[in-house]
Amino acid sequence: MTPDEAGAAAPVASAPRRRAAGDPVKTLLHRHQELCERAVDPLEIAAGLEARGITDRTAARFRHRDVFSLAEELYARTPRGDGPAAPAAAGPRDARALRGFGLALLPGAAALAAGAAALPYAGALAAAATVAALARPSATGRTVRGRGSLAVHLAAAAAAGWAVHRHGTPLGAALALAAAPGHLAAAAFAARARSQLAASRALEDFASSARPLLLAACAAQTAAAAGAAALAGAPLAAAVPLAVLLFLARLLLCHGAPWPPVAAALALAAVPAAPAAPAAAAGLLALALPVLARASAHART
């Protein structure tokens, strides 16, 4: 190649770099191409970006006021098929929701049936059914799997089993009966948080609206657990904190939270001391408030 040809080729080779530098969103689009192509709406991209450490302050470097605005541009610039997207079928989703609620009723039904039949291990059966309910996925489609699942379920079994051993079969029945309202409270929280996410224009705005929703869901589960304890004849001081703890554990796991703190809180509740379960529930609530106020916790999978 002659010196003249080399000089002519150099600007051509450097042109893509200049274009990329002048279009920072294009660089971001390439970096998160899989996320953008998989997303069904801009909210999925916003949640994914936040999960990867991109904040409203970071979005300003890409000439956007917040992550939501940046996600809208990424969604609009992501190549997709020419044909319109087929609307999601309501039937399967409704059937899945109905099946999920039916499964949530099983622990309470098993506990009541075992108690009515005066089975010698009715309390243990009720506790086992309640712990098994932790494995149900939430509205986000998430659930804990692998070694994390084993650790969480063992810790939950230890906490619930020890409590039933100390307080008798009625406590197991109360925990099992609280599973169904807990499922409804979790589903309502997920739906309302998703609605708030759609209406928010900044991550801080969403966080400030999600925290009261979580507190309302916990209050609803507390009331439901108190009612279940009264119905089963279990002591309120033992049933309510443990039911709320199990509710928060499932909520956190099904929204993508790391499992070690959840397992640790459940293990703390197994300590044979009266303040253990309330302290574990309070600690898990303190963890849930920031974790479930993130947009990334509400992305569908």
TrEMBL record:
Transmembrane feature ranges: 109-135, 147-165, 171-191, 236-253, 265-293
Coiled-coil residues: none
UniProt entry keywords in alphabetical sequence: Membrane, Transmembrane, Transmembrane helix
Region entry Disordered, spans: 1-21
Low complexity: bias regions: 1-15
Membrane listed as a keyword: yes
Top-level taxon in the UniProt lineage: Bacteria
Tagged with keyword RNA-binding: no
Name of this chain's protein: Integral membrane protein
Annotated source species: Streptomyces toxytricini (Actinomyces toxytricini)
